[in-house]
TrEMBL record:
One Gene Ontology cellular component: plasma membrane
Protein name: ABC transmembrane type-1 domain-containing protein
Domain ABC transmembrane type-1 per the UniProt entry, residue ranges: 1-130
Pfam families per UniProt: BPD_transp_1
């Protein structure tokens, strides 16, 4: 197909890899939505698309944001696809670059640790910024009231 050594070589398998979990995650959220909300919107005259975009999507913000955080973390830490599908050093992901860097100049442990910390920093920052939203989404279905 001619997509080796391109970004599509990583993007397409990741879509196929993460799509089932994403569907399962969002389905679990939408199944737990109260039916009374949908009924009241239908009584007010909302059609199916208005019901979805004006009622369900705003209420799904915590689930969507936590899914986005999880997918970002999993994608950022993807190692195997970057090593197998991309040989060009200019198109590698950060994890793939660190894997290729490991044997290039010998085993320089402090340099590898510094590279690992640089790769870890964005995931830590994203999680710390959005931790409240992540915890809210995880606890959203735990309380009935």
């Amino acid at each position: 197909m001619g997509i080796l050594n391109t970004r599509w070589a990583i993007i397409l398998p990741l879509i196929g890899l993460f799509m089932p979990f994403s569907v399962f995650w969002m389905r679990a959220h939408f199944v737990n939505m109260p039916e009374e909300l949908s009924e009241s919107a239908r009584i007010d005259g909302a059609n199916v698309w208005q019901l979805f975009w004006r009622v369900h999507v705003p209420l799904a913000a915590p689930a969507t944001s936590s899914l986005a955080i999880l997918l970002f973390l999993w994608t950022w830490n993807q190692f195997l696809l970057a090593i197998v599908l991309v040989d060009d050093p200019l198109h590698r992901t950060m994890s793939g670059a660190l894997g290729a860097f490991q044997g290039q100049w010998g085993t320089d442990i402090p340099l590898l640790c510094a590279g690992a910390l640089l790769i870890l920093a964005p995931t830590l920052v994203i999680f710390l910024i959005f931790q409240r939203r992540f915890v809210t989404a995880l606890l959203q279905g735990s309380l009935k009231g």
